[in-house]
């Protein structure tokens, strides 16, 4: 079997950006993905300037810029009353759903002759000085010169390498989140309802769709335990916090919970295997830096692997990648934890909202 230059595990924004970067330079790349199909979840929805620059270089930016929007107005309500409208701070970037970003990257990758291999789950890694043998569930083996673990916060690659993921994590979800339709609700602003009791619900119109991304504090049962996300629970939260009569939420295409985790890998490299994106660091979403940091990791790793594959010294660029991106991750962890605290405190004041994470 012909040996591929780089095998990428995971087809999120990090893995796809890395694969585009390498394929564009003529390296042979394969991308294995555990899921059976692409998802359609809005998740990370703000593409920052540096990510857009990277996408310009890769030839991915155009469809995103034509669909996404900038400068959406944040409409703040408190205890049901409209308080103010404020512009999104400029560094929030382009509003666009994560699934649309992944779709644009997959389209570009396809044009470069690389197609994501779905239903292909990395399950084992063996390596020597010459290359890596990646074993998939079911026993198939893919030989490669390097393996990039871009397989998310619960990274199999990181676990197989035995790399600690140090930091803190909360057991209970801080937020429920999902994509829903809300016929009758205006789509020109990002609605942010907060209450003096401490709850809140946010509905952000997602460009290029008829859905809103909903974020809310979870409901609790009679024992104070958070209830799992559901359309019924979303509607009760909406009715309690927004109190807009006649709006029925419908067609949930994504329902999820989010927990505060502030963790990073102690190393990004073990021989010929490297980590990037959420596999390397996870942190609060305030400020919208998770996906963007992964895209920047991918561009840096693309450069490092290109140098390792063609240059006289394979070790130096990979060591430099690790040092550079570990320092960035440490900074982002501290920064986003602080941004998150700022948002949590700010929304108790009428007229304040998610912009507090971008100040
Ligand atoms: C609820 C929620 C809201 C968020 N909001 C924001 C936001 O507003 N702004 C922002 O910037 N970020 C946000 N994020 C974070 C953002 O979604 C992540 O930072 C981003 O998805 C990380 O990209 P990634 O490619 O590193 O990992 P992922 O997107 O997690 O992709 C990893 C991929 O690897 C695959 N995989 C896993 N294990 C294996 C295996 N063994 N073999 C093969 N494939 C495997 C997974 O199926 C997945 O497709 C949010 C995340 C969540 C969950």
How would you describe this structure in keywords?
2 domains; eight-stranded mixed sheet; alpha+beta; seven-stranded mixed sheet; 359 residues; 8 helices; Alpha-Beta Plaits; 20 strands; single chain
What is the terminal separation in angstroms?
53 Å
DSSP strand (E) fraction? 25-35%
Domain module tally: 2
In sequence order, what are the helices and strands, one letter per element?
EHEEHHEEEHEEEEHEEEEEHEEEEEHH
Structural class designation: alpha+beta
Q: CATH architecture of the largest domain, please? A: 3-Layer(bba) Sandwich
Q: Can you count the helices? A: 8
How much helicity do the residues have? 25-40%
- Main sheet summary: 8 strands, mixed
Structural Rg: 21 Å
| Average pLDDT score | 94
Shape: elongated
* The CATH C-level class name of the largest domain: Alpha Beta
What is the CATH homologous superfamily assignment of the largest domain?
A: FAD/NAD(P)-binding domain
* Low-confidence spans: none
């Amino acid at each position: 079997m012909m040996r591929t230059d780089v095998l990428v595990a995971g087809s999120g924004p990090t893995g796809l950006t890395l694969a585009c970067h390498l394929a564009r330079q003529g390296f042979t790349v394969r991308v294995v993905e555990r899921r059976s199909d692409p998802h359609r979840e809005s998740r990370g929805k703000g593409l920052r300037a540096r990510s857009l620059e990277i996408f310009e270089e890769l030839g991915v930016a155009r469809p995103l810029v034509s669909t996404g929007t900038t400068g959406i107005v944040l409409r703040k309500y408190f205890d049901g009353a409209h308080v103010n409208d404020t512009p999104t701070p400029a560094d929030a970037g382009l509003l666009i759903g994560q699934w649309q970003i992944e779709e644009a990257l997959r389209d570009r990758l396809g044009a470069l002759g690389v197609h994501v291999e779905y239903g292909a789950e990395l399950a084992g890694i063996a390596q020597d000085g010459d290359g890596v043998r990646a074993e998939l569930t079911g026993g198939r083996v893919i030989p490669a010169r390097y393996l990039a673990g871009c397989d998310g916060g619960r990274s199999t690659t990181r676990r197989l390498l035995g790399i600690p993921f140090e930091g803190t994590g909360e057991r209970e979800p801080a937020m429920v989140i999902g994509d829903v339709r809300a016929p009758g609700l205006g789509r020109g602003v990002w609605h942010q309802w907060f209450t003096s009791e401490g709850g809140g619900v946010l509905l952000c119109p997602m460009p290029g769709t008829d859905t809103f991304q909903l974020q809310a504090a979870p409901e609790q049962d009679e024992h104070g335990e958070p209830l799992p996300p559901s359309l019924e629970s979303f509607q009760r939260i909406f009715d309690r916090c927004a109190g807009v009569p006649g709006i029925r939420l419908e067609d949930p295409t994504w329902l999820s919970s989010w927990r505060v985790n502030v963790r990073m890998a102690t190393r990004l490299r073990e021989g010929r295997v490297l980590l990037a994106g959420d596999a390397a660091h996870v942190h609060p979403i305030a400020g919208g830096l998770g996906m963007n940091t992964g895209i920047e990791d991918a561009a840096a790793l693309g450069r490092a692997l290109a140098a390792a594959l063609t240059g006289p010294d394979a070790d130096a660029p990979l060591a430099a990648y690790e040092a550079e991106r570990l320092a960035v991750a440490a900074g982002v962890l501290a920064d986003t934890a602080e941004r998150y605290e700022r948002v949590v405190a700010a929304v108790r004041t009428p007229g304040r909202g998610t912009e507090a994470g971008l100040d």
